[in-house]
């Protein structure tokens, strides 16, 4: 595991040279928020990193319910029973293993490593909607990779933790646009047309930092985000 700090954000990057999977600590004055929980065997490193930072972990926020983002959730909740767990109201269904679609949603099938019914024992404490605040973070609805994917912007710095709305491993791209060197986020994307709209929404936030589930963080990513959006637009048009 490699830890990289940018401002209030600590990236925990697991298997960076093979199959990079990241989760993030967001540092508040007296506590830590964890965004995503990486793979099932990552919980010890997550706990150790929190101890090194020296602040209690009080909240776990999930960008979406794929297995490489919720893998250590149950273990962390078992070890820290008072921690509050947050996920979007829509992806809470995926967390329960419910792959059904709403009437107004595109009927492309939900893809990726969604847990089986009953596999995840942790029940979220808060079901998030657009604009909700979690410490210094504001929730932004960015569906596409999954129907209920969310991104989180740190209102102190405008850094955005975007889950799999983008990837930077193998080349920067919007969810659903296949990068040959690392195609897995695209393979697991529910709907790339919806993902494109969410990518534009993220771009319009003018983020100072883009932090994603797979790949390095990018400072001042505006022009790179615009290029990634343009590339996906060409595949759709």
TrEMBL record:
Pfam families: Lactamase_B (PF00753)
InterPro entries xref list: Metallo-B-lactamas, NDM-1-like, RibonucZ/Hydroxyglut_hydro
Biased composition (Basic and acidic residues): 97-108
Highest taxon listed in the record's lineage: Bacteria
Residue ranges of domain Metallo-beta-lactamase in the record: 20-214
Residues covered by region (Disordered): 97-121
Protein name listed in UniProt: MBL fold metallo-hydrolase
Organism name: Bacillus norwichensis
